[in-house]
Amino acid sequence: DVLVGGSGSIQLLVMSAALELRNVSKSFGTFHAVQGLSLSVPVGSVYGFLGPNGAGKTTSLRMILGMLLPDSGELSVLGSPSAMAVRNRVGYLPEEKGLYRKMTATSVIAYFATLKGLSSARANQRARELLGRYGLGPFADKKVETLSKGMGQKVQVLASIAHDPELVLFDEPFSGLDPVNQEVLEEILIDLKARGCTILFSTHVMSHAERLCDRLIILGGGRGLFEGTVSEARSLLPIRITLETAEASPTLEILPGVHSMEAQSSNRWRLELEPGASASAVLEACFERSLRLRCFDVQDPDLHEVFVHLVGPSAREAALR
């Protein structure tokens, strides 16, 4: 439980968690942007920071990076109480994206890499390697102002990782990207993880988190509402089954784990299972009772449903965007 201590405790933390927040809060006047937030991001994981607009995601990221100081609580970034002390080991992509439009794509990436300690020669080499790997090789010497919006956003993503950081923080990285460039960004995240990098990204689009995250936290009103794996999040809501039989009105009440039933016709029902109940156990019981099934469709809750359930109906529009 030690966040900062002797060399032994710091080494233990570095091995287990790349980033930790413990009971962190931040207010702006009477507005409580972040309230008692705690989380732990394992080394080498992809961690999702989920929440609607105004949930406290950007404020939390800025506290992690040392741009804002918390009013209370403790932080540890790569074993240090301040990200500034380990800034050359951290990459950051802000939500407010912008580039030097008169510079070439290579020059932009190389410039940011030199700010993180790379030599000019190595920074230029690294910039061209990244541009070639992610489909921008032909545009390496083009000025940013001549690139499409999606290309420009990819250049900024590459600039944030050109120094090969151990920890990368992306604030709404998928925002504004078309489907093709979203796939490229997912490829970048997967490649970073394969090299052992720890990634934290904020989003209000559940599909990205569902595909990419090892763990995630769902924020609402500046508070952590859930923290765990995608599977653990889905388990917060019941499994639903649409069941249709050849017979009319068989007795289904004694099927195991059924919490509620809704008849859709004389031989078609919508079942909702109890938390932790198994759809396979229900199917097995149907066969044991010799029910002639025409349909047995299992609907597992998705992350969007969990998100709306935790954050509330007011977040529905943001979650769908």
Q: Span between N and C termini?
A: 38 Å
Give me the side-by-side strand order of the main sheet.
5-6-7-3-8-9
Question: Helix/strand-derived class?
Answer: alpha/beta
- Pattern of helices and strands: HEEEHEEHHHEHEHEEHEEEHEHH
Shape descriptor reads elongated
Number of distinct helices: 11
Q: What's the Cα radius of gyration? A: 24 Å
Largest sheet: 6 strands, mixed
The fraction of residues in strands falls at 25-35%
Helical content band: 25-40%
| Arithmetic mean of pLDDT | 87
Task: Find the count of extended strands (DSSP E, 2+ residues).
Answer: 13
The stretches of 5 or more residues where confidence is low (pLDDT under 50) are: 1-15, 317-321
Q: Explain this structure to me?
A:
The chain has 321 residues and is α/β, with parallel strands linked by helices. Strand 11 and strand 12 (268-273) form a beta hairpin. The protein is elongated. It is built from eleven helices and 13 strands. Helix 3 (105-115) packs across helix 4 and helix 3 packs parallel to helix 5. It has a six-stranded mixed beta sheet with strand order 5-6-7-3-8-9, with helices on both faces. A four-stranded antiparallel beta sheet has the order 11-12-10-13, covered by helices on one side. 34% of the residues lie in helices and 28% in strands. It starts with 6 loop residues before the first helix and ends with a helix. Residues 1-15 and 317-321 have low confidence and may be disordered. It has helices at residues 7-16, 57-64, 105-115, 120-133, 149-161, 179-194, 206-212, 230-234, 279-288, 303-311, 316-320; strands at 17-28, 31-42, 46-50, 72-77, 90-93, 167-171, 198-203, 215-220, 223-228, 240-245, 258-265, 268-273, 293-299.
